[in-house]
Fold this protein.
Amino acid sequence: MKAPPGIAPARFEQALRKWRGIVGADWVFTSAQDLDAYRDSYSPLYGEVTERVASAVVAPDSVEQVQEVLRVAHAARIPLYAISTGKNLTYGGSAPAYSGSVILDLKRMNRILEVSERNAFALVEPGVSYFDLYRHIRERGLKLWIDCPDPGWGSLVGNSLDHGAGYTSAPFRDHFEARCGMEVVLADGQLLRTGMGALPNSKTWQQFRYGMGPMVDGLFAQSNFGVVTKMGFWLMPQPECALLLTAEAGRHDDGPAFIDALAQLGYEGLITSQLFVESPVMGFPMGPELARLRADWSERRVPALEDYARRNGLVFWSAPFAMYGHEDVVRTQLAHIRRRIEQIPGARVRETACLRFPLADDQLAAAPDKARLGIPSLSYFVSRFAPGAPLFEGHIDFSPVVPLDGQTLREAQDLFDRICQEHGIAPLGGRVLLYHLRAACLIYAVPVGRDPQANARARAGFARLMEVAAARGWGEYRIHPAFMDKGIGYYNYNDGALLRFHERLKDAVDPHGILSAGRYGIWPRHLRKHV
Amino acid sequence: MKSRPGRLACAAAQLILLLGVAQAAQPTISWTWLPVPAGTDPGKAAFMRACAVCHGDGPDHPGTSSLQIKYEGKLPALLEQRTDLTPDLVRYYVRNGFAMMPRFRKTELSDAEVDAIVNYLTRVRPEPAAHPAQPPASRQ
Ligand SMILES: Cc1cc2nc3c(=O)[nH]c(=O)nc-3n(C[C@H](O)[C@H](O)[C@H](O)COP(=O)(O)OP(=O)(O)OC[C@H]3O[C@@H](n4cnc5c(N)ncnc54)[C@H](O)[C@@H]3O)c2cc1C
């Protein structure tokens, strides 16, 4: 057993003993095999000395236990790293940002505390997964939808605390935006509730976010100022029907106008679901022929790519989306959407399904586009795409936020395409994703695995992608811990005033720096490199 | 919602009596989106909760689709149809993961739950395989 850096083994042993007394001996893990389970399976540093690993794990079952565990850590100055379901794969998995931290695993706290059908909200503990909440709602026949990201095994709390997003209507799909009310344990074990939760016996904790005074909720996301033990979320009332649709445009040069039209329809509130603009020609993965055509940056490029699309019967651009509500209303809105899209010559909107809710049990498995119907799954977790294709072992996502402007987005795609080619990395994705509200995100899933050389190449390419994005004013919305310092380093307006403010907060609320050191570049004073 | 090894073992003992009836009433292959019915064999219940989301039947089950590609019909892609799975193999994959499948922690699946899954997936079947599947020789 290895103590966290800078912690004397005897002090560590003593803390472990106290934690066993609090959570029970079965829920403190120190064996190599148990700790292995907390490694980030998709770490770009996998197997290298710099890989971030845990020194122990404590898994409390209640808020009171969390408070006591934190008091022990605070007194002994032992670094902790809180996870909810710990499935933050691509952005760090269940491993700590600061190697040697003790993982505070909240998975056992998996109670669904309240689901209100009348006021469309849920109050949950950190260990509740999207699957859990979905099944709970389904079992009770409640007329509510959840919004889930691709990984249904993730948690409402963990996902939203990393600013994650999903697929259904705004604002539900921006998961931190959909929150209402938080309960947080501070580093010294103090318990607080945000918003209306500060009013003892409040009756509107999950309905009115502001409460009175400054709204501090945002301080607990992408940060390390507290451990969240409860969180409320607004849910979408079950619609009468959903139309699944795909907008399509046929030519390479339609890209900017197509993106702009879709964005405008979003601003007008006609398209409320998440949508992405993808291309079987411009996106990833690509076969050898396409790779050759895409590597040619001469004037032959566009005609050759359009010819490729024609020969293979591919639609150049497509954008799946959904519309929810009463069918007559939705169809009237669809007529407006069609008129707008059809202004681009040859472009159209295809209806792929019209579904009425609730779905019967036997409709669930076959339901298309599940995430846009609020049905959790793990459909993206594919290890093998085709016979003989290399095993896909994991990825880290480069996810820059780019202005919602067709021309700029197309330029960004071409720029990132060039860099991937130069660095010999073949990411998946590269779609224009309308994910959060009012900004586009491009997501490039850069493959990583067990080969250190390939990982080194992936890291070099990833770093370069970040650099060129930052030079154009595009920052990542979220990042793997291996790149957190670099990522936050670009957010340095006025000599890093924002990070310095975060550090002042850190020093005030967690003076011994025990919570999630290094998360999003916020280090406690004793670990800051620039002090 | 809560899963406690103690409670699980106790439930297991109570349910053994009901097992024949419960299994007869359920489809052989686990489903993903419906609540696990009361009276389900604990191994199957744990499988449905933790494994079927990838290894269930039908579209959107990436474990099944990946194994389909791997075995090309030589072995069933559905784990619940395999007759060659050994306890060691099942335990190995649950705790070590493979490719896109991460390791499962004890807070997600306790040792008792893994044992129940092992029993469920290796329960006596009519024709045991001649060559039981082996875990990969070495993996970092
Ligand atoms: C194939 C694939 C597809 C993906 N698609 C999506 C997608 O569509 N949308 C999306 O958003 N993400 C996506 N992801 C990224 C990620 O897997 C999900 O966001 C996932 O939900 C995060 O894991 P989690 O919910 O278990 O959170 P956790 O791992 O539990 O938490 C994430 C982080 O938040 C902090 N944290 C968690 N809980 C607490 C707490 N209680 N108190 C304080 N801090 C806490 C910790 O720093 C932790 O590391 C995808 C990943 C993959 C591999």
Summary: The first strand of chain A starts at residue 28 and ends at 29. The pocket of flavin-adenine dinucleotide is lined by residues A 82-92, 106, 126, 149-151, 154-155, 157-159, 161-162, 164-165, 227-228, 380-381, 516, 519 (CB under 6 Å). Chain A touches chain B through 61 residues (CB under 8 Å). The radius of gyration of chain A is 24 Å.
